[in-house]
Structure of Protein FAM86A-like protein:
Amino acid sequence: MNEDLTAVFLACSSSRFFSLLSSIKNEWTLDQQKSLCEATWSHQITRLFPRNVLVSQQSLRRFVDMMENRRIEVDDEIYEALTRLMKQKSSSTDFCTYFVKGKAVTVESRMSIVESGTTGLHCWPAAKQFATFALENSATFEHRSVVELGSGSGFTGIIVTLFCNPRKYVFTDHSKPVLELIERNLQINECNSTSSVTLLDWSAQSLPPEIEETEPEVVVACDVVFDESVIPVLCRLLVSLINRFKCKTFVLSTVRHEATLVAFEEALTDLEMKFKKQEICGSNEPPFFIDSNHKFILHEIIE
């Protein structure tokens, strides 16, 4: 059971964590509390790559309240962990760790949806959903060169790089802070050998040399269709890449506003691009614990 709690806790799924915790019928002896603490708040991965301070404080405080409400003596290690957390300065930095095929994959991100003028520092559910798709369809990426548009924290590309054996993976974004975040996450997961990071302005007249030299066979984009204003320039870039490199192209979007996705499909049609689409629901199961309320659309654009 502690292994399940560790996976959920490190994956930053707070609601799932407390649902699982509440279902445990332990008497919560001091030894059981100590074991829980070592599996979560004091886990060796947590010490190296700590969860967000505020989230950790809240979750530990909630456990202490649960014990006190049941009139159960709280282990000293629990109080020590809470005291240690209370002394730390709060920030928006968070580390998510997922156990994929027996390997721990850790990604730094921001709790804030918008920071430094970009949404790219936050790890969005669509990135996790496409990672699920990639793991289930690894042959699509194996021994192929891949370019990702709007790579965000780099989560999707790290999963593809580590588990799908691409020949080359190019992470792109228009924001330097986002590119610096991706670089850090690549270092954490030791997957730099086949990966590179480059600045990409979707409206630029030419492609960066890194993409030209890579000659992408697959293009990936996650949660980039969130604002109708970006659709024309995005679609022109996609069409340019497809026409030039004959690449497979996948765009996965979280369903927020139907009108935005309709506008995206209309823009592709206007540019004489065909596409297939698939509706997907999130799965609140390992390894990524995606909220089942999230709905996604995966577009595969056909030349």
About this structure: Confidence is low (pLDDT under 50) at residues 114-120. The first strand starts at residue 93 and ends at 100. The first helix runs from residue 2 to 10.
